[in-house]
Amino acid sequence: MKVLSRQILKQLHFLLLCILTALCTNAFAGQVTVAVTNNFDYTAVELKTQFEAISGHTVNLIPGPSSAHYNRILQGEGFDIFLSDDSERPGILEANAHGTRFTYASAKLVLWSVDNRRLTPDLLTEKDFHLLAITNPRLSPFGKAAQEVLEKLDAWEGIQDKLVIGENIGHTYQLAISGDVDLALIAYSQIVYGMYMQAGSHWQIPDTYYTPMEHQGVLLTDNPAAQEFIQFMQSTRGQQIILGNGYLVP
Q1: Is the whole model's pTM more than 0.85, yes or no?
Q2: Which domains does the chain have, with CATH numbers?
Q3: Cα dist from 13 to 22, 23, 102, whole Å
């Protein structure tokens, strides 16, 4: 009977440790299903990628309008986390014992054009444009903020004939990038991606012009992996990702 050399034994021992580590990682790996509002989906992908790399868990992102996600949750859809673009819907869900809410970001509003042109408040007050897209103020916090900005500039009543109403913030952006309108009031996060900026021109609206757009989420289950994902979002690295994509953090 041959005696295995010490070097071979070390290699076998290392291989066994790798197998056991992989088995343990797989045994404790979890699945997280996240319903995420459209305007946060790009940022959520970056959070998902880094979280999966360090945790071993898998995150399934389901992007869509916050209103649609909210209705699906009320109908019993099995999400672990809901990342909304407002605080109203998460507040209602928490009040009705659907989960625990948390604040993960605040959005900023910009006036944006796909064309390279100088954008100023005077452009809105003097109606020096063809069409302006905003999101429906009755359905979206971005639409409410856009209306507040125009009212602050005493321009709301005078530009009704130039307004095009987007169904949601993603649709509003599409109206502008397609050239259907020459201006849009959209989320800053839609035109900034870390080091990169969407082509065109923008004017970042002063935050005193509109009510802060706090984004809240809801932890809907007791899934430990979901709790870890929220902890990662609130960690220093998670907040760096959120800030880098054009949001404020709590």
Answers
A1: no
A2: 30-107+213-244 (3.40.190.10), 109-204 (3.40.190.10)
A3: 14, 15, 45
- Other CB atoms within a 10 A radius of the CB of residue 225 amount to 20
Q: What is the mean pLDDT of residues 151-166?
A: 96
Of residues 78, 168, 182, 93, the one with CA closest to residue 129: 182
State how beta strands 31-37 and 58-64 pair.
parallel
Q: Where are the beta strands (DSSP E) in the chain?
A: 31-37, 58-64, 81-83, 100-107, 109-113, 132-135, 163-166, 183-187, 192-193, 196-197, 201-204, 213-219
Asked whether the predicted pLDDT for residue 21 surpasses 70, the reply is: no
Do 233 and 104 contact (CB within 8 A), yes or no? yes
Cα separation, 224 vs 226, whole angstroms? 5
> How is residue 158 annotated by DSSP?
G
| Confidence (pLDDT) at 139 | 86
DSSP helix/strand/coil, 197 = strand
